[in-house]
Amino acid sequence: MDDRLFRNAMGKFATGVTVISTEHNGDIHGMTANAFMSISLNPKLVLISIGEKAKMLEKIQQSKKYAVNILSHDQQVLSMNFAGQLEKPVDVQFEQLGGLPVIKDALAQISCQVVNEVQAGDHVLFIGEVTDINMTEQDPLLFFSGKYHQLAQSEQATASS
């Protein structure tokens, strides 16, 4: 099967957009990812998938912790920044949650302690136990077919505003 065909098919699954962040030796590291999911309520576990070639892989393996920042509709530039898609990096405002750097004003911030690491093809899956959560009330940034999207405002929601 062709790699492009596989990637295109996987792109038909609409996802939210996250920035995974961690801190190691006093330095903050982040990367854009849409490979994130919740996997258990008891204990509260989430999973992220990091490519073998990503610089973030070693950072999480060393720190044994990560935060998931679910981006809001107006944070596309942050997603592009952490995906290395901008000519000039933007200044990112971080705050702390559970001892981890998290992106200020993200839709949700989730701090995690790594409890398991699983090799899966050319990626490593990190299962993290959730240690803290912070949320805001905004619309999410979405990703579908290789492009950013936002939730469409329904006529009823717009009319009642």
From TrEMBL:
GO molecular function, one term: riboflavin reductase (NADPH) activity
InterPro entries in alphabetical order: Flavin_Rdtase-like_dom, NADH-dep_flavin_reductase, Split_barrel_FMN-bd
GO biological process: pyrimidine nucleobase catabolic process
Alphabetized UniProt keyword annotations: Oxidoreductase
SUPFAM superfamilies per UniProt: FMN-binding split barrel
Origin: domain of life: Bacteria
Keyword Oxidoreductase: yes
Descriptive protein name: Flavin reductase
Taxonomic placement: Bacteria, Bacillati, Bacillota, Bacilli, Bacillales
